[in-house]
Amino acid sequence: MLKFIYQRWWKYVAILLMLYVLTMGFLYKVPDLDILNETIRALHFHVPMWFGMMILFLISLIHSIRYLRGGDLRQDLIAVEMANVGILFGVLGLTTGMVWANYTWGDWWNGDPKQNMSAILLLIYFSYSVLRSSISDPEKRGRISAVYNIFAFCAIIPLLFIIPRIYDSLHPSNGGNEGFVVYDLDNSLRLVFYPAVIGFTLIAMWAASLRIRTRILNYKLLKLID
């Protein structure tokens, strides 16, 4: 991961993709769908942010496991910063979802199962940050927070993919509702949506990489790592 962080090519790709997404997301003609209308454009921002969040949480999980296996503090630093930026993108995804809900469902917060479970998931990861800040010893902090991070990631599956499908939900593909694929007959949304997923994920990783490099420099100054 560190070798990838220091490379530049993927950052140029991220910039180009985001320029494309921002331009096409606001200007490209979208399908004329009932109720959604022009608000369907939020799909290109709200959902990709959640994809970015989950991918960063997955990377954070992998490096937490690597830290537990090898004890390299660099792995712990990667894990925590991937989680921190993942939390940020989760908050942004939840916020854009609330804006979308206000225009399509008539209220910012409808008590929808997926809204509630998403909020609970973010609270679990906020607790991860609080846990780390309460432990001063770097190695002990890394071990305890790595174990917590594993359980936090495992919570994603029931909270986002199982519980919302059990109960009635306003979200597509949940509670028996059809997904966007059913409505998107002309595939026009895919032209922006898929690049948006990649673009937002790369931007999230870019932000995390800057924080990781800063953390590593601080640890080197403190002589905690070579």
Question: How would you describe what is shown here?
Answer:
The structure is a single chain. The protein has helices spanning 2-5, 9-27, 43-70, 73-104, 113-133, 138-154, 156-166, 180-183, 190-221. The protein has 226 residues and is mainly α. The longest helix has 32 residues, at 73-104. The chain starts with a helix and ends in a 5-residue tail after the last helix. The model has no long low-confidence stretch (mean pLDDT 87).
Strands, helices and their partners?
Layout (H helix, E strand, L loop, with lengths): L1 H4 L3 H19 L15 H28 L2 H32 L8 H21 L4 H17 L1 H11 L13 H4 L6 H32 L5
Helix pairs in contact: 2-9, 3-4, 3-6, 3-9, 4-5, 4-9, 5-6, 5-7
Q: Beta-strand level of the residues, as a percent range?
A: under 5%
Q: What is the terminal-to-terminal distance? A: 17 Å
Total helices: the number is: 9
Quaternary structure classification: single chain
The helical percent reads over 70%
Computed over alpha carbons, the radius of gyration is 19 Å
Give a count of the beta strands, DSSP E runs of length 2 or more. Answer: 0
Low-confidence stretches: none
Provide a brief overview of the structure:
By secondary structure, the protein is mainly alpha-helical. Helix content is 74%, strand content 0%.
Note the main attributes of this structure.
single chain; 226 residues; 9 helices; 0% strand; mainly alpha
